[in-house]
Specification:
Layout (H helix, E strand, L loop, with lengths): L12 E3 L2 E3 L5 E5 L6 H14 L3 E3 L17 H14 L3 E5 L13 E4 L7 H7 L6 E4 L6 H13 L5 E5 L17 H8 L4 E3 L1 H5 L5 H10 L4 E5 L17 H14 L4
Parallel strand pairs: 3-4, 3-10, 4-5, 5-6, 6-7, 7-8, 8-9, 9-10
Antiparallel strand pairs: 1-2
The structure holds phosphoenolpyruvate and manganese (II) ion.
Length: about 260
């Protein structure tokens, strides 16, 4: 179902009235984690003013260490709803297991994080929904495996899948991950699904987000996911890679100049 051979036209995914793919460029932006009502609403307002189409924020966080901030969980989802109400922006947030699906009922777009790309039981359950899914590429997964995970969701009847390249594990250690730029044209050749790029988790360093974002645009991405925080040095997760709202505004100016179909 994800194969372009059997579905030549680009798929356009509608997220709360906001279109992604097929000539609709979309930027999703917001903090790594939802931390407070003020934080998420303020960041949502700022990224909307800069032209973001969706606000992101993690409520359930997959952290490497069990001692790191694990997210505000259900309360974080409540605060995301408030930010949506304040700005009108649809929300995208990560789910970690099937037991939480009920909590995500009114979430506009559900994110499957890199660590869960091959959580097949989760993918099957998400296939039963109509909610658009943002599927992130696993840390060490091939493009074939990535597309098979999209297939799991689509096989269940949910064809609203957006693919997200977010950097992969390589021998290089100076960046958090290595952004696989070649994944963009290859995924778009193999599949009709929209492809967005997350330069924030690829780089792990705020100053590198802009050049990687521009490279993604040049390579034909249908959108970007960018981490933005109102106070990056004090962020509870991923502060080092988070842009300030002002930096994000500068990035959006450049992106608008480069995307012919924004
Ligand atoms: C995130 O989007 O905050 C995140 C955890 O991303 P990834 O799953 O790509 O590491
Ligand atoms: Mn993050």
């Amino acid at each position: 179902k994800a194969n372009r051979k059997f579905h030549p036209a680009d798929t356009v995914v509608d997220v709360g009235g906001h279109k992604i793919g097929g000539g609709h460029f979309t930027v999703m932006a917001g903090p790594c984690s939802v931390e407070s009502a003020e934080q998420i609403t303020e960041v949502a307002r700022r990224v909307k003013a800069s032209g973001a189409g969706l606000v992101r924020g993690g409520a359930f966080k997959p952290r490497t260490s069990p001692y790191s901030f694990q997210g505000m969980r259900a309360e974080g989802l409540t605060l995301l709803r408030k930010a949506r109400q304040a700005t009108g922006l649809p929300i995208v947030t990560e789910i970690m297991n099937t037991e939480h699906i009920g909590l995500f009922e009114d979430v506009d777009m559900i994110q499957v994080g890199a660590r869960n790309m091959q959580n097949f039981e989760l993918l099957k359950e998400l296939g039963k929904l109509k909610t658009p899914i943002l599927l992130k590429r696993g840390l060490s997964n091939t493009l074939e495996e990535f597309l098979m995970s999209a297939e799991y969701i689509m096989a269940g009847g949910n064809e609203n899948v957006v693919l997200c390249e977010r950097g992969i594990r390589t021998f290089e250690t100076s960046m958090r991950n290595t952004l696989d730029i070649s994944a963009i044209p290859m995924l778009k050749a193999k599949s009709h699904l929209p492809v967005v790029v997350d330069p924030s988790h690829a780089a792990g360093i705020a100053w590198m987000v802009e050049p990687l974002a521009m490279a993604a645009v040049a390579a034909g991405a249908d959108g970007l996911m960018v981490e933005v925080h109102n106070d990056p040095p004090h962020a509870k997760s991923d502060g080092a890679q988070s842009l300030t709202p002002d930096q994000f505004d500068g990035l959006m100016e450049k992106v608008r100049g480069a995307v012919s179909f924004f």
